[in-house]
Amino acid sequence: MRVLWISDYFPRPHDLTSGVWALETIQALRRQGLEVAVLSPTPWIPRWLVWSKTLRGWASVPREWRLQGVEVFFARCLHYPHRLVTNWLYHRMPWLDSGLVWWGCRRTIAQVLTRFPAQVIHANFIFPGGFLGSQIKRRYGIPLIVHERSPQRLGAAVRHRARGRIYRRVIEQADAVITMNQQMAGALRVMAPAQRQIHVIRSGAQMGAPQGASPRSDGVKQVLSVGALSERKGHEYLIRAVAALRQELPSVTCRIIGHGPRREALAALIRELGVDSAVELSGKRPHEDVLQAMAACDVFALPSWGESSGTAYAEALSYGKPIIACEGEGLSEIIRDGVSGLLVKPRDVASLTQALRRALIDRAAAQRIGEQGRLVAAEEMNYDTIARRMMALYQQVTAR
User: Does 386 lie in the same domain as 376?
Assistant: First the structure.
């Protein structure tokens, strides 16, 4: 079976980290015997707009690329890749985005389907991927599966009626819809009641070798966090919790991997709290480095809100690490507090400090929690399990 994956999140030559989950899911699908090619809508950046390193990277993306045996086609579209432009322009006037996306990608799509006659379209994110997929289905008659992964994008469609109308049409035109947790599935059912085929498949990870925490010779206890440096990832609360905990456990350190708009504010907070020697902002790191850090840490903490289920959590769980996440989020549907993970109140330093204390002081309990969490990851978040579930859906929609 030939599957065309559409995803605006996918590794590119200038950024091999973003969208690693897409590449690893595709590799799992290929292990199931499927042929998979990728169409990745990519902003067209004219030379006169290249004024930053980020835009220079976008402008340098090739038309075609081969990554780990996967053919990738970067279809150019007129879209300016800036959060403010998206929030203040595209969400309010989505016809600007949707019309230009299809106009820019249509020729590349025709060329791709000539070279790779897909039998199923798997479109990640309702927009732009699902929108492009619905246009392909209408013109070429190829079955469509839409996969919404982002609570933030879904929330924007709820807040902005014009965007919501596009989302509803795409959901209703799909042969099946996948999303990340039951909360998001419920929101999709409200948005498009006519769509009866909504399935939950969670974030995935490769199952790493169990790496239970073992005492270091220097006695240091390391907390790891991986995520974009944005407000909703909760790094401010983690830094404050680590600073509070060091008053009784001075051996505690924290490493935060990721980059984003909050870096300077977080660096200032670290200096203000006097934990410069204990908290490290490591910036964006290659995926291999992230996995090594997962294997070496004592506890993984990401007190984020607005999470679907999260690849970083899945990876930490796969290494048998006790994780700390926020209650009421997608992960809380499969993680039992105190059994397979530790769940804390969002934006609550005291709750987070207590969870860190428990994970770092009671080593036997931390190991039990990590082992149980790894069992959950193996059952719900293993890439090979996820690939088998996706393959069953592909077979279902092509059999109609």
Answer: no
Confidence of residue 57 (pLDDT cuts 50, 70, 90): confident
Q: Is 213 contained in some domain? A: no
Mean pLDDT on 37-46: 89
Task: Say if residue 148 is in the same domain as residue 286.
Answer: no
Strands 323-326 and 252-257 turn out to be unpaired
CA distance linking residue 380 with residue 400, whole number of Å = 27
Alpha-carbon distance of 374 to 171, in angstroms, equals 33
Residue at 26 is within a domain: yes
Do residues 130 and 160 both lie within one domain? Answer: yes
Q: Are residues 389 and 312 in the same domain?
A: no
Q: Which pLDDT belongs to residue 276?
A: 95
Query: CA triplet 308, 312, 313: central angle to 5 degrees?
Result: 70
> Coil, strand, or helix at residue 36?
strand
257 and 141 within one domain: no
In a shared domain, residues 225 and 313: yes
Percent of the chain at pLDDT above 90? 80
pTM > 0.90: yes
What pLDDT score was predicted for residue 88? 64
In a 13 Å sphere around the CA of 197, the CA atoms on its Cβ side amount to 15
Are residue 288 and residue 140 in the same domain, yes or no? no
Q: Is 114 exposed, middle or buried (0-12, 13-18, 19+ CB in 10 A)?
A: exposed
How far apart are alpha carbons 380 and 388 in whole angstroms?
Answer: 12
Compute the average pLDDT of residues 16-28: 95
In a domain, 216, yes or no: no
CA-nearest of 118, 32, 29 to 73 is: 118
pLDDT tens-digit profile of 374-391? 999 999 999 999 999 999
- Structural domains in the chain (count): 2
Which backbone phi and psi does 15 adopt, to 5 degrees? Answer: -155, 90
Pairwise CA distance, residues 167 & 18, whole Å: 24
Separation of alpha carbons 367 and 359, rounded Å: 9
Q: Which domain holds residue 123?
A: 2-204+382-398
